[in-house]
Amino acid sequence: MNPETGKFDDNELARFQTDKDVIEVSEHFLVHEKTPTLTLVLSYRDQPGGARGSPDAARRDWRAELDESCKRVYDELRLWRSRKAKREGMPPYLILNNRELAELAMKRPAGFAELREIEGIGEAKSGRWGEEILAVLAGLAAGARDAVKPAAGPVASGAVPDVCRDGSAPAPPENAGEG
User: Fold this and answer.
1) What DSSP element (H or E) covers 140?
2) Which architecture, in CATH terms, is 11-49+58-147?
3) DSSP 110
4) Which of 58, 61, 66, 67 is nearest to 10 (CA)?
5) pLDDT winner (highest mean) among 5-9, 51-55, 61-65
6) Global confidence as pTM
7) Closest-CA residue to 107 (of 135, 73, 61)
8) What H or E segment, with its residue span, contains residue 46?
9) Which of 43, 44, 157, 177 could join 20 in a cystine, given CB atoms 3.0 to 4.6 angstroms apart?
10) What pLDDT digit, counting tens, does each position of 58-77 carry?
11) Could you give the CA distance from residue 50 to residue 141 in angstroms, rounded to a whole number?
């Protein structure tokens, strides 16, 4: 742990996992010579075809590459991931990294088979968190269907588009379900 920031530096771990499919994580927190220490033991396999990209790919802004509808899905998945990571006491990117979140937002799988087609989401991740991920996506799709009403004429300002760039259903508007 960096005593100045009070945080653990995870940059090296993020770089290490850019070309890995993390299967299992075991974490151990201890204090050694009055210094808090976090040890992670990763069970992983290399991604087929080598690295997914340069070490900078881990810091790529995947959200910026999405259209507005997909950004809403990405943000909801990211919020779920953050809450889940906090409850499980692990770094969020070990649950789903940002690239995986972006692919989920674009492809919006409806079942486990489709979920596992996303690079980096194998049996371990889909087995551990797949049901919750699919529930978040299904909830967003249901909210979008309820929020989108056919317009009699030109589309009203602020209306949700019928489809995302990739042809999937849109996320609900940000104020859906409010007062």
Assistant:
1) helix 123-147
2) Orthogonal Bundle (1.10)
3) -
4) 58
5) 61-65
6) 0.55
7) 73
8) strand 35-46
9) 44
10) 567 888 889 998 999 999 99
11) 34
